[in-house]
Amino acid sequence: MKSIKSKALLEIVVLILIITSTLELKTLSEPVQEPWKSLTSIDMENVMKHVEFFSSFESRMTGYPGFYKAYEYIVYELNRTLGNVTIEEFEVTAPIQHFAEIIVESPEHKVLNAYAFWPNLAESCSTPEDGLKGPLYYVGYGTLPEMDGKPIDGSIVLMELNNRWFWRIALNMGAKAAIFIEPEDSFRGDFWAKALQIPIDFPRLYVRKEDGDYLKNLIEKYGNLTVTLKSYMTWDKVKAYNILAELKGTDPELSKEYIVFAAYYDSLSIVPALAPGASESLGISLLLELARVFKENPPKRSILFVALGGHGLGLAGAREFVWRHFQEIGEKYKMLISLDLSTESSDLAVQFYGGFYALHTTVPGYETKFQWLRDKIFNEYLKLYRTYGGEIRLFDSLSLTNVYYEPVPLYVDSEPFVLAGGIGFTLRTFNVFRRHLFTPLDRLEDIEIDRLKPQAEFIALTLRMLCEEPTLAVYSKPTAIGVGYGFVTLSGYVQEYNLTKGWYQKVPNALVQLPFWPTLIVEKTDENGYFQVKGLRAGAYYWFNGFIVDRYGHVLGTNEYGGFAPPLPNLFGITIYRPDAFVNIKVFRCGSIHISYVVDPRTFYTPYGSYTVLNNFKTHVTLITYGPVYTDGFDFQIFIPPDTPVEVFLRTGGSQENYAILLNITESNKDGTGYSVQPGEVLRIKNLVLEASKSFYILDEERLNNLHSFYAFSIRPEEYHRQAEDMLQEAYRAFNNMRYSEAYCKAVHAWCLEAYAYSAIKDFIVDLAYDASLTYIFTLPLIIMVTMGFLRRSRGLKILTVQLMFSLFFMAVLYLYSPGFHVATNIYVMLGSLFIITLVVLVLIVLWREFSTALSFIRRKFLRIPYDERDARLGVKEL
């Protein structure tokens, strides 16, 4: 009986659970019927078909043929799906490769295709018009042992790409150019290490693996190979397009509001002509598919599908869209959602910020502004997606309390919209390294489309639910100047001072750059020297680099500091606090000195705050006009006026000690001649470790010989110098025999020892000068007391004259026998200073005696003591 009751009770419980679950499913199914259609209608095969098309081109970078083919494809697809397509054309400045090739001259003749790397800052990767000819040597991964036995200076080096920064060793040793072989695998950090943030003219070409192997086999077979490199790359203004397609909503009221759904369709690569950008095409491919899905199941609220161009050139397309539709933000365009997807993971993040403007660090109140959106996405839409059986890990980057590490650069197309006061966010794949992003290896075979499916489903669900919301409880309005944000358009001129006219003239076709790693905002001036930059952050400080370039993209001039010209307002940099911001950039035609491997030999790193001191070699004072010093790690490029010899001092930031002095010293000319350049010339100081140690050695040798001539010796600098001399001789022997690894080790050791010797000699000279000065100063009171003792009965003027004569006599004795006077930096200043000290001391004695006399007179008068004139022997009356 008991078992029957238990069985009946169990059946009742099961029945209740079944009824409850049925009611729950019925309750959920009604409001989510439309979103479910959006999820089930996504065809991943269509997405993959789009990805295959976009990644089929060598490059989709803005300005290249693949970009315009992609543009035509998107216009066709959106016209076929939605119709009502609008094109917004704009211009961007991009590095365009016109051609690049390697001509094998001997012993065989063959022409190989090549691809130029991204420009070094403004300096394009172009060779002279007739090419760059030289012997070719294979140096493996660019390390010193692999270069041993090969004459690198004046040669062209062939090396593997995966060598991090070691290729700079060849640059330091005087190589003409470098050819990098396509790797089987790599990561973007290794690729982007092949471009420098200094405008050094050093052509770098990229070849396919089969061509690289062909060159290696020829070198192995013949041992000697002569090639000619020809490359032509320029910064050009090219046309770009934003493609807009509108899907009208079904609700009469809600259809007046739009959600902007955006993705970029261009690609970016360190090798601009090789930018397949397969992973970069995922966003635009999904956008095209969702346009089809939502057309079949229209939402209540309207959607504006936007395909953005120029993403890789400083978010140019996104900035252009915001600039054109600035007044519609908040009123018509309620929200913007952009895509940045990858198939390395299926995790997804929702975030409003990126690294382009870094708004999360400057704008107060953003968490509150996005609170409603966060609650909807994470508390409702995510739960709803899981109700459908979907599985996805979603990360909240709308909240600043959740800070996640992400690989840089992190630029998202929602940033300009948020900067302008709108509500925008990006749905981007999370927890990924994106190894091949912005490289020639971002190819179709890396795409794992199954990982994109959950991301696509959740993106479709989020877009659908936002379109169905009766009210978007978010507030936004167009903002030009806000607290830490605001969308500002800046304009300006690039100007050059004309000495003949005595005023400025505009520079046409100049380059203006704002650094945003890894790319730049680059603008090219028009024929009147005018430029405009859209979408800068209000309240931020911007510094502008201006460059004069020739038709081959070579730098002929840059920012001018100092000079004879009158000042211009808002010169070079500006803090933006007005919507009509304006800046002037003053440039001049100049040359430059390139120094590589700039390290303090005593610590083996570039000191924090390390800086250069440039002086006119003839006058040893600061230059009247000079250019900037561009730095990138261990490389410095110093811009100087033409035909002006300069001396260069490299100093530490803290103690301000010289760790390198470059005077162009030789054994035959120990005073040096300084370094002089012609307009547009780049003077490369090769093998700094040898040049710096040689300069220190000659300076130290001369100073020690000078000290020895006055019988001044110090053990510490003598020992440093002796050891360095042996090391330096061994370094030169090894270098001449092309044993570079040995030569560099010994040269760095010699440089370190000579740097210590230089500091020790300087300290020793200062000690000698102090010794001579203090000896004289401390002897001066003795001279005064002795003369006053022997000439007690003499009158004041006689005593003063004798004291002065004895002081000068003792100074002459010190001058003859003390080395401190002769090794001082300026002996005349030292002698003059001591003479002035003598006069001051004697005058003080006279004043003291006069004061004592007056005091004695007052004392006698009040105490009625008879006055005796003999008590005032050195009074003013007797003088």
Structure description:
The chain is α/β, with parallel strands linked by helices and 879 residues long. The chain folds into 5 domains: 30 residues; 288 residues, Zn peptidases (Aminopeptidase, 3-Layer(aba) Sandwich); 135 residues, Glucose Oxidase, domain 1; 103 residues, Immunoglobulin-like; 103 residues, no CATH class. It has 20 helices and 33 strands. The strands form 6 sheets. Strands 1, 2, 3, 4, 5, 6, 7, 8, 9, 10, 11, 12, 13 and 14 form a 14-stranded mixed beta sheet that branches. Strands 15, 16, 17, 18, 19, 21, 22 and 25 form an 8-stranded mixed beta sheet that branches. A 4-stranded mixed beta sheet has the order 29-30-26-33, with no helix packed on it. Helix 4 runs parallel beside helix 9, helix 16 runs antiparallel to helix 17 and helix 17 packs antiparallel against helix 18. It is globular. The N and C termini lie far apart (142 Å). The C terminus is likely disordered.
Main features:
879 residues; alpha/beta; Aminopeptidase; Glucose Oxidase, domain 1; 5 domains; 14-stranded mixed beta sheet; globular; disordered C terminus
SS-derived structural category: alpha/beta
The 3D shape can be described as: globular
Architecture of the largest domain, CATH level 2? 3-Layer(aba) Sandwich
> What is the CATH fold-level name of the largest domain?
Aminopeptidase
Number of strands: 33
Q: How would you name the CATH homologous superfamily of the largest domain?
A: Zn peptidases
**Overall tally of structural domains:** 5
CATH class value of the largest domain: Alpha Beta
Percentage of residues in helical conformation: 25-40%
Biggest sheet architecture: 14 strands, mixed
Strand content: 15-25%
Helix count, DSSP H or I runs of 4 or more residues: 20
Output the radius of gyration.
38 Å
Average pLDDT reading: 86
* pLDDT < 50 stretches: 13-32, 871-879
Distance separating the two termini: 142 Å
